[in-house]
Amino acid sequence: MNDTPHSQWWLASLGRTLIWARLRIKEAGTAEVLGSDGNTLSYDSQDTARAALFDAEFVAFDGLDEEDALRRGFSLHEVSPPHAERDEDLRALMVQSLGERA
Fold first, then answer.
1. Which domain holds residue 35?
2. What predicted TM-score, i.e. pTM, was given to this entire model?
């Protein structure tokens, strides 16, 4: 389901576990965030949605460089945002364990 002009993936890290969130900016300027629990939260603007994500210690995935990722405990080469045809199917993919480092 892609009825919005812009989607952006955000992530938070806890050790070697990544928690994903998807920010969708609607044509009217409102925004929705699909969280790792499968719930969608609505916001009056994209700025409000981004502020909520920042407050929860999420960062925009497309804004990370390799150095930032390594500081968070992973490499950009080992992760990519989850993908599923339907939002309902994304729920199981929103928390990603990267396992132990060698």
1. 6-78
2. 0.87
- Tens digits of per-residue pLDDT, 28-59? 999 999 999 989 999 999 999 999 999 999 99
Query: Is 89 a domain residue?
Result: no
Query: How many independent structural domains does the chain possess?
Result: 1
Between the alpha carbon of residue 5 and those of residues 8, 16, 25, 27, 28, the distances in Å are 10, 32, 7, 7, 10
The string over 79-92, giving b where at least 16 C-beta atoms fall within 10 Å of a residue's C-beta and e elsewhere, is bebbeeeeeeebbe
